[in-house]
Amino acid sequence: MASEQSTSRGGDPELGRFLRARRTQTSPAQVGLTVGSGLRRTPGLRREELATLAGISIDYYVRLERGKETRPSPSVLDALARAMHLDDDEHQHLRELAARAARYAPEPPPPPSRTVRPHLKLVLETMRPNPAYIISRSMDLLAWNPGGLALYAGLADWPATQRNLARYLFLHPTARTLFPDWDAQVRGCVARLRTQAGIDPDAPDLTSLVGELLLKSPDFAKLWERYDVIGRKRIQKTFHHPQVGILTLSAQSMHLDGTPGQRLGVYTAEPGTPDHDAMLLLDLTAPQPVSHPDAKAEQQQRTQP
């Protein structure tokens, strides 16, 4: 039986929410259980079924799901992951939630800085014609080069403070036609937000965005309830762009040193391909930004003897 560590106190409920979401979306057939023909009132696995599969007591699992137990042992987490057939990303998220529950504090840490350092704005310019941008942990667009903004057709029509990639996907009328695989795009978007919000559930920037989308988008609300989580993987995206036509670009996202919570996103295409030509046209026809005074000053300072 998996080793149970019992430390009871009120704490972070996110671990229990994740366990409940994954349990109710795991069918008995998936884990090799045979059920009778009678009506099951519980979607997915019952609590007692999951506890038995994981080799822990039913009472202990119920306390975990209700947030009454906050320090499950690694063996319990591994047993639950095996029982529900969690993939590597879900298993890692379970560990991170348990670690957070163990050190839970009611006061959230301050949100990361939204200020983009001048030299990073210069980096964005040097990446042209590749569309590139810097986003916050809640997917706010903080800085961009011309193609980075123009790639998301219609996003420039919104005020700069409203430019958020999740908000764009769910609330901008152009998003559904821009992405031929819109359903897959929004599932990945919500899963990334769910992962971040699970680690920082009280963060004001995240709770504000999630609250807005829950209110305004039924599609978002349905996906949010599922509590899917995924890691970031190198992918390709196809855009049906109203200005430059169809283009398929390789996407890459990476953390930035010294700027917690900020990520650099960049799209590329092989030179000489129609996709690269469309990308170049997008960069040439996009509105050109006014030079950043702070970036220009930094550049001049670096070139002075």
What's a concise summary of this model?
The chain has 14 helices and five strands.
Give a verbal description of the structure.
The protein starts with 13 loop residues before the first helix and ends with a helix. The protein contains 14 helices and 5 strands. The chain has 305 residues and is α+β, with helices and mostly antiparallel strands. Helix 1 runs antiparallel to helix 5, helix 4 runs antiparallel to helix 5 and helix 6 (118-126) packs across helix 14 (293-303). The protein has helices spanning 14-24, 47-54, 58-65, 74-83, 88-102, 118-126, 146-150, 165-171, 175-178, 182-199, 204-216, 218-226, 274-285, 293-303; strands at 132-135, 141-144, 235-241, 245-255, 263-268.
Strand and helix order: HHHHHHEEHHHHHHEEEHH
How would you classify the helix and strand content by structural class? alpha+beta
Mean pLDDT: 85
What percent of residues are in strands?
A: 5-15%
List the uncertain runs: 6-10, 291-305
- Profile the largest sheet: 5 strands, antiparallel
Helix % is 40-55%
Strand order of the largest sheet: 2-1-5-4-3
- The protein's oligomeric status is single chain
Number of helices: 14
Q: How many β-strand runs?
A: 5
Gyration radius, to the nearest Å? 23 Å
Distance between termini? Answer: 69 Å
Name the overall outline: elongated
